[in-house]
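quick one, 362 residues, struct below
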Amino acid sequence: MTNSKSTRPNRQKPGPSSKNQNTKGPRAEDKAFKGKSVNRPYKGKPSGKNTQHESKPAVETIELSDKKERIAKVIARAGLCSRRDAERWIAEGRVKLDGKVLETPAIVVGPDNIIEVNGELLPQPERPRLWKYHKPKGQITAARDPEGRATVFDNLPKDLPRLQPVGRLDYNSEGLLLFTNDGGLKRKMELPATGWTRRYRVRVHGQVDERHIKTLAEGITIDGVHYAPIEASISHQAKTNAWMLMSLKEGKNREIRRVCEHLGLIVNRLIRISYGPFQLGEIEPGDIVELPAKLIRDQFGLENKNSKPKDPDKQKDPNGKQNRSGKKPQGRTGGKPSGKPTNKKTGPARGKPTSNSRGKRL
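---
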């Protein structure tokens, strides 16, 4: 767990405070919402108050790549707007490149170019960050809805950066929905080539038998659309309803609902419980939790450019045991006696009186 007084919640300096730290137990992402941590969940219900913890994660920047990219993509990565909005801003003459008003988005830029938006220099992009959100039923996964329905963005804290959802959940679906501030990370997580499994708890109306399980495992083609094999199992069967666990990797639009309907089963509740290695955990509906930066680096192989090389002398003591505090091991490890008195205190023998240094009875 991170220290709530630290401005860098995902990095911890070695010291005595970490000596007794428990390294076992629940995963960091599943306990991020518990205890005194900067990764406390944001409450989804609007209260008119800032629901974020007082200690905010430090804003780290990433170095610009030497590779040239389209200017709309660069503006979007800086967190100002989407790519489509960036192209519209360029058409409106709100973007300058190297001091000249840009007239077309069909141009690539590099780290040496100077970009201005609305008269201000383009800020450097933040490091890739990731949040998990417990989407309740009755929200659409979009920034705006023409029909006026509630969206997943309506109740998010206003002080968060510009977020993009990873994948989608239907209006009547609930459960884990991931958000990120990095478009490249979003696309990487959504690609089927990533091979991540999405797992769901599904309640259906009807009787489920092994015939349904076998059909799902073989894959189904409905109205010319082929759905890849779905791993399914029955967790509970009642008279009229059944709970199932379903795992899939494609994630096509309304896939589970359409496949179940094709088999004569009507889905009346759908909860996503995991997306690849990320679990829903115990966060309440409407809450959002930022995941630790180390977890993101480990999962996506991102380099921590602010980290320092480890000092091998501070990693282990001479006995080969882990020395987490970075201090020298306590106690003697061998050699001749020093002749100096030790500070070790011994208690008095049982049943005998204790005397002070002058020989007087206490």
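The domain at 69-121 is CATH 3.10.290.10 (Structural Genomics Hypothetical 15.5 Kd Protein In mrcA-pckA Intergenic Region; Chain A).
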